[in-house]
Each structure stands twice: as C-alpha cells, then as structure tokens.
What we know:
Blueprint: H1 10-20, H2 24-31, H3 36-47, E1 54-58, H4 64-70, E2 75-80, H5 83-92, E3 97-100, E4 113-119, H6 128-138, E5 139-150, H7 156-177, H8 181-193, H9 197-207, E6 210-217, E7 222-228, H10 238-248, E8 257-258
Parallel strand pairs: 1-2, 1-4, 2-3, 4-5, 6-8
Antiparallel strand pairs: 5-7, 6-7
Helix pairs in contact: 2-7, 7-8, 9-10
Amino acid sequence: xxxxxxxxxxxxxxxMFDDVAAKYDLTNDILSAGNAPLWRVATVKAVDPQPGERVxxxxxxxxxxxxxxxxxxxxxxxxxxxxxxxxxGRERHAEITFVEGDAEHLPFSDESFDAxxxxxxxxxxxxxxxxxxxxxxxxxxxxRLVICEFSTPPFAALRFGYNTYLKRVLPGIxxxxxxxxxAYRYLAESIEAWPDQxxxxxxxxxxxxxxxxxxxxxxxxxxxxxxxxxxxxxVRESAARRAKARREHQPTGEQPRVEPEA
Length: 262
C-alpha cells in the first residue's frame, strides 16, 4: 500500500511539508515544468477577488497564491497545516494574515468569507468530504469556491505519458531539487490515487454546492473546479447530501457541466 492510500494523519502531513518549506516554491516550479505560475494565474482569475472581499486561501503554503489574491484588493486569510510553511510565508508576505489550522475543522465562524480557494491541497486531507462541508459552512450565501487540483488527462496517450513522468522522472528530479525526496514520492502516489474530474464534481454537488463546473488546464493534468453556496437553505441540510455522496462513490449517469479548456 502506498503512503497516499494510508490514513492521512494531520501531524504527519504537516511534518512532511515542514521539511520542504524552504525550497517548496522553487521545487514546484521545476517539477511542473514552469506551469505552476500559469495555474496560479488561472486560479486567481477564477476566484475573481474584488476589493474589500474576504477570501480564505486553504493549504496556502508559503502564501504565494494568497499574495496574488491580495494584490486584487481582497482581505486574504491564508490557512495551512504546516508551521514551517507558515513561517516562510510570514517572512515573505507580512501583509497576509496566516493561520495554522486544519481544513477539516476550520477555525472560523459560519458565513465568514466571500470566496474560498484551495490549490493542490484537497488531495492531502484525510476526509475531503468533511473539508468541502467546512468550506461550504464558512462561505457566505452566494459565495464562491475555487479548487485547483491535479486531475486525470482525458486522452489515454497523455495519461500514459503523465503517469510515466510521475513514477520515473519526477522522483529523480525531486532527489536533486528537494530536501525531502520522499515528500515528492508521496506527491506522485497521491496524484495517481486521486479521483477524476467527474467524481470531484459529484462531491461538490453532494455536500450542497450549486453551479458546479470544471475546466481542464494543461490538457487535464490540472483541473479548475468551481461552485457556489446556495443563497437559501441551511448548511445543515448538506449533511444528508454528504452521506448520500459517500455511499455512491462513483459518478452517476449525470454528466457535469464542462467549460472549454484553456
């Protein structure tokens, strides 16, 4: 069994990211072949932060994405599980409010934020459905959710090439560029174990998000998912939907609305 299949203890996940905090952004740029900044731009555009809005950036790491959101005039709160990541982030971005915390148990009141975003972090939580439910809870009615996450390329040839890169090329690059190559072995395993675009869209609907859509970036290696918190209805009603979604596991015959690929 790979590390990505195991129960993900928050303390172990945090320790793993503590080890790579100093070189995290540089290593990601290298391993993504320079695509990471492009994905960040697409995510900020999807969030569309407005001056004065409160935006929650989950799994914020060193705050690179948080700073990009703040430049649009939003009041950004950056949350991460790793104290090491937060320490680096506070040094680099003194204007950002950093909070150490767990996406499954957000330390914020109901209906606190106009938008919530998480980039490459939902994959690392032990219970993604619980994390999504928490995101719904802290959003204001009509609030926006944007998830940027590794996904499944739709074409078989590209999937084969991408999986080969994850298993054979990425570990070698990580050994040269990272202080903790094991963390990037986990990265490859967690990407391979992560469900495709349709399943994540189903999860979003299952906990109560509406206007759910996704679009592929870089030929589906990454996908941007969006949803809205309903303007009416109690968040507690999402509990029953969440339980139903857990039982189903696999997508139904309903096809998600897909936006044109960038």
